[in-house]
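Q: EndoU domain-containing protein, please. Structure only.
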Amino acid sequence: MWNSVEALEENIFLGTSPEFELCAYTICALTKNGDGICDYTHKGDPISIHIKTVNNGSLRILKAFPSIDHGDDGGNGGNGGNSGGSTASPGGNGGDGSKMQQLVDKMYAVDTDRPSSNEQKLNWGNKVEGDEDASPNPLFSYVNETIFQRPVYQKLIDMYNRDLFTADVCEAEPEMAGFRKQILTDVMKTFTATPMFQAAFQYLQDEGVVQKSLDDFLPELFTLWFGTYSRCHGAKGSSGWEHVFLGEWKGSTVDGQHDWVRYYLLEKAGKINYHGYDNYDGNLTGTFQYTWESYLKKVGGFLIHTSPAFDFSLFTACVYTHPGKNGCHFQIEGYNLGVTSYKQSCDDGTCLSTSYPTN
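A: Structure for EndoU domain-containing protein:
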């Protein structure tokens, strides 16, 4: 409120100089040349600059303001409804005929490691309001754990059990060397040997994004997922892999955590308390709230009816070819879905900041 005038849901930069803001708004206005959004990352967090201009012989800025993408804490993004905001259309994965849709169709068809409807049961419970627990039961009511004997699950769960990462983003991660590096390399090689990743890699080559053999590409891919950077006062306490496949603690909240296997294991161990859903699309994906120990995930989500190797392959393809907020668009089982993903500079090159599904 300023005198009698109220600003509704407007944001400002904090911790920046007026010179920075002037330059940021100017660059966005000149590059968008009209109304638009400019996306970038700061300390691992996706930031958007919203710009509105008018050109009457000269370009003038009418409105400019920043926003933080709460997709990681706003998950799959509020369409509402107890059966999800997306509408299933007949005929399965129709999509829009795009190359990305063709890739997703192919990867989903060959993902023989994804759980069947009989191997995985969910209880979405009640719609959540505020921060209170609205659902007495866990999200996962049943998982046939024999699927965890398959290599993609075995390697991932073995990595989880070895406590190779520090959850707090303000604590630096151990050096990427020796036994730790070997375990993570084994997981990545298991994922990249799947037909899902082979399809994704062929797509990247066909799009001209990658012009290397797979063996030559693997070091770059390792840096993308496992390269460390700071989300807290300079401490190298985060990586794309930890953020997506394990989840992190940032202040009093959960940051990231976009893998159903990790969530299920923590929930089974009594470390996660499911509060309820915001929306969901069948048993494919959803947006929901929970606490991990004492840390709150206000709104988060992940793909549920896919294997971790599928997610890894999809997120890799999207961040290389269609990064940004809702940059990837496709259908799975008739639901309109997408992926938001961002990259950022890190000491070893280019690292993944985040990647997660949207609907």
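A: Brief note, in case it's useful. The chain is about 30% helix and 30% strand.
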